[in-house]
Every structure is written in C-alpha cells, then in structure tokens.
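Throughout our pipeline, every protein is held as a single compact record rather than as scattered files. This encoding replaces a full spatial description with a residue-level series of whole-number codes. The remainder of this section carries one protein's record, kept here as part of the documentation.
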Amino acid sequence: MLDDRKTAILRAVVREYIETAQPVGSGHVARAPGVNVSSATIRNEMAVLEQEGYLAQPHTSAGRVPTDKGYRFYVDHLTERGRLDDGRASEVRQFFASTHGAIEQMLRDTSRLLSDLTSYAAIVTSPHATRATVRSVQLVPLTSRQAVVVVVQSNGAVENRQLEWDDDASDVAVAAAGTHLAAGLVGTSLPPEGMVAPSGDDTVDRLCAQVHRRLSGSSGDDDVYVGGVATMTRAFEAVEVVRSILHTLEQQYIVVSLVRDILDRGLSVAIGAEHGVEPLAACSLVVAPYFVEGEPVGTVGVLGPTRMDYPRALAAVDVVSERLGRRLSDR
C-alpha cells in the first residue's frame, strides 16, 4: 500500500493523464486537490512512484504517465463507481423501454448505445445457447411448401428458422406438428439432443423430423456485437496499434474467450497486459455479466485505452447490463 501523500500524487497524475493524454509534471500535481506539498517534494515522490512501478517517464525531461500497475491501484483503491448523469440515465431507460424485435438487433443496438455513452468500443455477447431452455415453439406456415419455426428460449433469445417441406403440407398438419413439437421441446435445450417422440401420425412425424433437422443446425456459439470501434481507435496515434486492435476485434472466438476469462477471474476491469491478449496491450476492458431469471447468460463491456475514464465506464456498463438483463427477462 502507498502512504497518503503518494496516494494523492498518484491520483492526481492518473486523473490529469486521463484528461489530457500528456505526461504530467509536478506543477500540475501541486495544484490538485489534496496535494499540499511543494513541487520539489512532489518530484521526489514521483521518482519513488516510478521506482516502485506505478509511474513511468517517457522522456528524461518529460513528466510522468501511469503504468498498468498505477492504473490498477487507482481502480482498486481510488475509484468509486460513478453514476450516469440524468440525461444519459434517461437515454438508457428510453432505449430499453422502446426496443423490440429480434434479440440480435437488440444486442447490436445495445452495443451502439453503450459506445455512445462512453466513447469507447462496446462489446455485447449473446445469451449462451447451451444454458437456455426452450420456453415456447411456434410453427407458422407460409405456403404449402414453406414454414417458419420460431423458438423462444429462457434467456430471451429467439430462433427463427425457415423451412421448406419435402412435400405439400396443409395448415392443419403444420398446426398439429407445431403442437407436438412444443410438447416435446419446451423445457429442453437447443440444439435438441434427441428426436421428439412419435405422435402416431405419419405426416406430423415427417414434419417434426424436418424441423428437428433444421434446429439441430443451430449454433451453440456466442455471437459478439461490437459497436463504436472507429470512435475508440481515435485515442491511439500509432497506425500499427489501431490495425492490431481492429484485427483482434474481428476474431469472435478471441473476444468471447477474453470476456469469459476476465469474469472467471472475478474481475470487472482488466488493464493492459493483465488480460493476456498481446494485440490489446494498450487497452483496458470493463465488463459485467447480464442476468436473465437470475442466471448469468451473456456479457456487456467496453474496450478503450488504458487511460480510459474508469468511473464513467464502470457506471455505464453496470446500468446497461442491468437494464439488458431485465429487458430480456420480460420477453
């Protein structure tokens, strides 16, 4: 732990660097609240903080900048979760009160909302299909040869699969098949593990078998929705850093694994090299799970430079994850 003087100086350096992105000198620190010592004393203490790994000096004549260790101390000991101002809080409430339609579009729009709130890249992972059970099944005829099966899951996800029958099927047969499928699939998980038990009607069983084959093609992988990448990358001057970040965010498996690993380690903030993904070493990630019916089903997060505004990012992620979970639970 740091003593009170070093703590106040580190707090001042981190806040100033987050605000300006410029190395912070002793003169700026001397004017910060809670720092009541001379510039000479501040320089000595900043040198000690550098030796202990909390600060770094980019150039000999420059001020200091926080290191990953400095940001970690700031987040763990000097940061309280902020709160969204009334305008942004109202924006979140209105968004979730008015959003409707397919869950994919809702999650995509949620990532854009979160990016707008923070000015960082926002990451939203879809509900885990493997943890959900089927809540309802509907089979809707389109023509004598086509239909749509709509499956609503307990995590709020909605599967829409279009079907083409091998032979003509009457609306009565399709309705009977839908009723039989619902009886066999409600309470189970997708993709279905086994065939629905025979109904005794050859036509209904044939239709059910085709629906089963279509649903068995459902992916158990999480989808990732990323919004605001262009806004976030403006925080970086090096073209190679931006290119590396963009390339990494395009790889869905890496992103899903990253947010899961952070949550599994009990973290809500991963700073710089802490998350172990080298192309994102200049970034921090703030994450929170969202819950449906008391179960964690997906993740909301923001990715930004290590000098991100952590209180604002934590507040936005907390509010959006809570509202998203509540909205999906009401579907």
Remarks:
- The CA atoms of residues 132 and 155 lie 6 Å apart.
